[in-house]
Every structure is written in C-alpha cells, then in structure tokens.
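W.,

You were right to be curious about this one. When I first looked at the sequence I had no strong expectations either way, so I just let the prediction run and decided to look at it fresh. Below is the sequence, 441 residues in total, followed by the output.
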Amino acid sequence: MKRVLAAVATLLAVSLMAPLAEAFCGFYVAGAETSLFNQSSKVVLARSGDRTVITMANDFQGDPDEFAIVIPVPTFIERDQIRVSDNAVIDHLDAFTAPRLVEYFDGDPCRTFSAFTDRGIMYLAGPSQPIDRGDTFGVEVEASYAVGEYDIQILSATESDGLASWLTENGYRIPEGAEPVLASYLRQGVRFFVAKVNLQEQARLGYNYLRPLQVAYETNRFMLPIRLGMVNADGPQELFLFTLTREGRVETTNYRTVRLPTGQSVPLYVEDTFAEFYKAMFDRQVEQTGMQAVFLEYAWDMGWCDPCAADPLSPAQLRELGAFWVEGDDGSQGSDVFVTRLHARYDAEHFPEDLMLQETGDDSPFQGRYILNHPWIGLPLCQAAWDYLARLPEHFDREAETLADLTGWDVVEIRDRMDTQGQAWLLNLGNDALWPVFQRQ
C-alpha cells in the first residue's frame, strides 16, 4: 500500500508542475521559414493559362552599386509588364507555407472522447553608369525602362560571345563559365532582362534594401530558369519556389518531386531546437536523394486552412504576387488559388537543366509538419490510465528513433538529451517505484 501511495504522490506532484491538458488544444510553436538557410532565393510564380508572373526576391549582400541581375525571358517585355513588389508580401507567403512544429496534448485516458486537437538568376557586379555601345557585338537594346529604383534593359543577341562582350564592355563583370549558358539560352530564341539599381532613385524613394522585381509574360512553357544563377555561385544554392495556380499542386517534370517526411512525433526538446532539427532533416533528405530532387514542403488551397500557420493572404496580396485572376476585397480569402511550396538545393553538377514545371489535378492538402506529443499527466483513476502510462516508455523510445532516422543524429545522444529535458522519469519507468503499480500490484 505504501508503494501505491508513493506512486500516486509522485504522479500528483508532477501533475501540479505541468500545464493542464484542458488548458490547451494544439497549436503551431515554430516554423521553418526561408531565413533558416543561407544563399537562398525566393521566387513566386503565378500562372493561369499561358500567362506567367514571376516575382523574385534576392539575397544579394553588398553595395547596391554592385548589383545587377540577368534573367532570360521568352518574349519582348513592355514597361507595363514590369513592377516592383513588396518583401513583406513574400515573407507573409513564406510564413504561411513554412514547415511547422505543432503541439498535441494527450487527454485523460479515462475519458471516452479525445481531449486533444491539431491546430497544430545570375547576379553580376554592374556599373552605376554603363557604357552604351548599341549593337556593336550583335546585341540590340530593345528597350530601356526605369521602374522604381531599378534601371532595366531588354536585350536580344545573335551570339553568346557577343552578348558576353557587350556586357563586359558596358562594365558588367561576367563570371567565368557564363558564355556556354548564355549560348544555350540564345539557341532557344530568348531575350534577356537586365536590371541594376539606380542609387539616386533608391535614395529618393527612401529604401535601404532591394525590393523584389516582378515580370509578367505570355509563354506556353511553364518553367523557371536557374542555370545562370549557378554560374557565379560559390557552392550549392537554396531555392524556395512558391507557385500560385488555379487547379492543383505544381511539380517538376525533369527532376523528381519528393514529399518531405511529415506527421512524425519527435521528442519534446525539439521545440527549443526546431531550426537545428529542420536543417538536419533537410540535409539528410538531400543526401539520400543525391541532391537530385525538388522537395514539396506545402500544397494547399488558399481558400481554407486547418489549421492556419499564419493569416491567409488576402485577395489584394495575392494579386500583388501576380494572381491576376483573383477577385474580391481584403475581407475574403483567395478561394481560387492553390499554393505550392517547393524547396531545392542545387548546383550546376546536379541540376544541369532549368526547372520544367506542370500543374497537376492533385488538390489534396500537404504540409511538412512535425509533432510534439505532450503526455497526459494526472491521477490514474482507471485501468485505461494505467495502461496508457505503461506504454509511455515505448512511445518515447520510438520518438528518439524517429528523430535519429530523420536527422542522422546519434540515438543515444538523443535519449540522453531527452533525460536532461525532464523526461527521465517517463523513459525509466521500468526501474522506479511506479512500475509495480502498472503491473497492478
């Protein structure tokens, strides 16, 4: 009897220190936004029919005077097809779609209902005043525009060496290896969108950072050019591609599109180290696929979410990102937009081709989501409660093994860390005074 009383006293003492299960349901506690990764680019592609709107946020570090970007575009670009967007809208979309850590709270096993719920692009160094040599090298400056703080030129060329020479003569420092990539685009009959910062206009507008550029065009090819962005890269790059379409999930057709592991229960201490966990998990996925896959992190209809990691984007915000077909005011959600979030780590060796994309008819929801399952702690007043507590050591051991499998971390070190985070009494129930009670002694 004394042993039983000691066991009950221990449970009661712990329950008084723990949050009540009824006080919380489930909710998001952390997110893996793009800021976790260095050398990352965020691109939003909105597409309906043959119309594509691409919004590019860059992570350029340095003097804006040294910034220039060259992007292949399939058609001639008019002034009204170019605009400057807002970083905050892309950041909102990032937060809304980011992989998440969620919390569950187990309910009292003695109750008959569930007491938990789930709420759970090539960069160049460019001059401030380029020299205009016209079509001396077979290059034609088809148009020049001033858009916000950017000076933009639309170029066509007949030869890659001529285009490279023109860019060099105009003060752009072409990285080694660019010419063959330029040649491959010229064979496709594309033009080039070249943008640099107008420092005086940037100062007048009052911005001390580079805002995203947005370009709209008509093409029957649904794709994202990435090869120029690897020419002057000093290692693998991170690409976060957000697509806004009307029917369903977007996937790549010339590379594997792989769904991230999702729905796994992980040890409670991961709440304090979610960024470390997510990067290790993504590193492992990249390694296991030989860095030759694009990963699906999110796919969902913007018109509803259950739960929502952040407020859904309003129709005005969706139109800001190029979803021109969206109607309505800021008081409604984008019920005619399907959002896909793809994440790729790429370099020239493993991604020799641009990303070719297709919209599928699959509108089933998906999100990278990892679960903290808080155990119920209370007085065991029924056999179901005793059975539940007896199963906890096995449950936590599975969580340790799952974390090791997802990240490659040492499972012994994981168990040790679970001990230091206050789960020792649960992991070692077989060796303390509670175990005889679980055996109904």
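Here's what jumped out at me. The radius of gyration is 27 Å. And, maybe more interesting for your project: The chain has two domains: 2-18+377-438, 28-371.

Coffee later to discuss?

I.
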